[in-house]
Amino acid sequence: MAALAFTFDKAEHAYYNARGERVLSVTQVLNNVGLVCYAGIPQAVLDHKAEIGTAAHEAAWFHDENDLDWDTLDPEVEPYVRAWERFRDETDFKPELIEHRGIATVNGYEYGFTLDRIGRFQGRPTLIELKCTANVELSWGPQTSAYCMAMRERYPMLFRLAVHLKKNATYSLVPLNGVRDYQIFEAALAIESYKLAKGRNSNGNGDRIRG
Predict the structure, then answer these.
(1) Domain ranges in the chain?
(2) 164 with 171: CB under 8 angstroms?
(3) Which of 93, 95, 177, 206 has an alpha carbon 20 to 30 Å from 61's alpha carbon atom?
(4) What is the pLDDT at residue 3?
(5) CA–CA gap between residue 109 and residue 193 (Å, rounded)
(6) Number of neighbours of residue 160 by Cβ within 10 angstroms
(7) Buried residues in 100-139 as b, exposed as e (16+ CB within 10 A)
(8) 3-state SS assignment for residue 209
């Protein structure tokens, strides 16, 4: 298992391998097998929350690069970034990788990934995901296991942790230590890769996967 040559289309949020073929992303895989589920929530609400999350991640990146202009932040976004700032102030976490992107392979199947942070937390190498959702999600464990597998050659032993950022500018820490997380992602990736190879999307029709 190793990182591979790739290109990334930011507009489409799409990963392409060295042969120019589009490959599944981690979030695509988990969404398609039903581990990301927001049933009953209006699409407009989901889109708005996604915009907030994206903006908060970008601002946190600027924060960690010491290049954040707080005056430019949307009032809805600022509390999440303040929560991240508080985490950084209250812990010894030192990021080594920020918004690291690539393509990896496991069991012969390729997937694209963008992890949030890797660094040292409480003295050990740690993969950290910034989360702005209302609740802890089922997908976080398999998601972070996919990132750990992608980075295993460089970081053989990574502790996985979600920093759950809240809209009241506080945060909570969610350890992600399920051993089966790795098996779940590997199985999901195999299923979705098989479907993609057969020209089928998550609904079982003949359309190529999108998003």
Answers:
(1) 3-197
(2) yes
(3) 177
(4) 57
(5) 7
(6) 21
(7) bebbbbbeebbbbbbbbbbbebeeebbbbbbbbeeeebeb
(8) coil
Task: Give the architecture-level CATH label for domain 3-197.
Answer: Alpha-Beta Complex (3.90)
Tokens of 196: 């993609």
209: left (phi over 0), alpha (psi -120 to 50) or beta: beta
Tens of pLDDT, residue by residue over 155-196, are: 999 999 999 999 999 999 999 999 999 999 999 999 999 998
Using a CB cutoff of 8 Å and minimum separation of 24, what contacts does 132-138 make?
A: 132/49, 132/52, 132/53, 132/56, 132/80, 132/165, 133/49, 133/53, 133/164, 136/162, 136/164, 136/174, 137/36, 138/35, 138/36, 138/37
The sign of the torsion formed by the CA atoms of 74, 79, 81, 82 equals: positive
The DSSP symbol for 25 reads: B
Q: Does pLDDT of 205 surpass 70?
A: no
pLDDT at 59: 98
What is the token pair recorded at 61?
A: 């990146």
